[in-house]
Amino acid sequence: MNVRRSAAALAASAVLCVGAAPAALADTAPPSPSAPPVVPSGLFGKADPTYDGVWRQSIALLAQRTAGEKPAAQAVAWLTGQQCASGGFASFRADASKACDTTTVFDTNATAIAVQALKALGGQDAAVKKGVDWLKSVQNEDGGWAYVPGSPSEGSSTSIVTSALAVAGEKPAEVRSKAGKSAYDGLLAFQLGCSAEPAADRGAFGYQAADGKLPANADATAAAVLAGLGKGAVVDPATTDTPAAALPCPAGAADPAGAAQGAAGYLAEALKKDGHLTAVTPGADQPTADTGNTADAVIALAAAGHRQAAAGALEWLKNNSADWSKGNPAALGTLVLVAHATGADPKAFGSTDLVGALNATGPAPQAADTEPKKVESDGDGGSGGQNVWWIIGAGAAAGMGIGILLSGRRKKNQL
């Protein structure tokens, strides 16, 4: 998990909802953008929160809890105030005093990460239940979820929602659509199996099929590892270390945990070349370092028990993530979660005190506990029309397999 869930996944879903090809829109000028909303008091970060307000707030609160901080009441109240009466969340509501209505664009990713944060904070059982019930109500017939309800399922959203359900105490195998498909059925449909080509992609998860093919996608893969293992964004350090392994072929019966380990094997192999993941950004012809997905991959490998496989990427993040994360609460919070998952010190992460830097982006925490919190999981293991044109452009890129790279959830500063 990391900084994402704003631009790219929403973009892809928006493309699917609108059903318009970029070529058909080429001769139509986009409308002039309106002024960005004022960043409200209580919210972490100073950047425009339109696409990632709830996401970055939730990640920041989760990170503070794992670092032993007690989040400010004002920050918690901002998050709970974003929840609609139905239980769902939009990416951001500038006027939370106004009731959600038919014009509200609900966001499964924002809802899922908010459920995790509220569960970790404690004392928010009613809000957690409402969020879970809403997520169940927008499950697609195939068992999966889309970023925006009503769109076709995709791998990243299905994974993030499945993780939230597990953290909230639900059993994903028993969360079924009207057609009888479980959350795990929806999840496993996005794994590239033993017939995938190139063979190096076997075990990876895809975001969504394009032209009849399901490209491997690092964001979806890292999120799927957590979902298959019944874990959320907060991963406690493993006490043992096992080698990561490729997806066994021929594959046996569909098994979420086994699928997660195969996905972890794909990530471990992908990290070997450069010590970090890379991606080609829109308009570029050469790949560049993908810091956000590298952070996700480290958390995923730690969750799967592969500390050594994550060690090189962890060191790369310590030495190369400062500029990427500066002033960005979602990025800083994600790195705190990386440190937590790997047993690293978040207050001395390379040259950065991640906790201090995160705290500086929002309301000061109430107090510091003497020991970092272990966030328990009850799981059993097992904005408006003026933004549509920008969304469509980003969505086209997301459909080509670089989904999270454009996302403000993780990499807002790369947009």
TrEMBL record:
Residues 73-172 form the Prenyltransferase alpha-alpha toroid domain. The keyword Repeat applies. It holds the Pfam family Prenyltrans. One of its GO terms (molecular function) is transferase activity. Gene3D superfamilies: 1.50.10.20. CDD domains: ISOPREN_C2_like. The keyword Hydrolase does not apply. Keywords: Repeat, Transferase. This is Prenyltransferase and squalene oxidase repeat protein. It comes from Streptomyces lavendulae subsp. lavendulae. The lineage of its organism: Bacteria, Bacillati, Actinomycetota, Actinomycetes, Kitasatosporales.
